[in-house]
Amino acid sequence: MSGCRYLEKYEWLVCLEHFDGCCAYCGTSKKKLTADHLVAKSRGGKDEASNIVPACETCNQNKGTSDWREFMMSMSTFSQERMNKVFSWRRIGRYL
Ligand SMILES: [Zn+2]
Which CATH number is associated with domain 9-95? Predict the structure, then answer.
């Protein structure tokens, strides 16, 4: 499993567990997962658990510095359930 240089190891593991080892955006479990900032650092996003989600390299690149909600809703594979998972991670991540 890939690591994450922004978080403590346990935080990244809890994060992966929350998303069932899948990309937070498209839901694939078949690609290598990278750590993506929901709010890009260039937009003031921080290196903290509530702002980091697992993303496949394709989504990570396609999202770039876009707003994560707009990015998700623009996807042909959009799922409200997956978006809710991101919202719940935003809350859980704050307490790690
Ligand atoms: Zn993806």
Answer: 1.10.30
Q: What pLDDT sits at residue 73?
A: 97
Q: Cα separation of 78 and 83, whole Å?
A: 8
Cα of 94 to ligand 1 centre, how many Å?
A: 23
Structural domain spans, the chain: 9-95
- Nearby residues for ligand 1 (ion, Cβ within 5 Å): 23, 25-26, 56, 59
The model's pLDDT over 42-91, given as tens digits with 9 standing for 90+, comes to 999 999 999 999 999 999 999 999 999 999 999 999 999 999 999 999 99
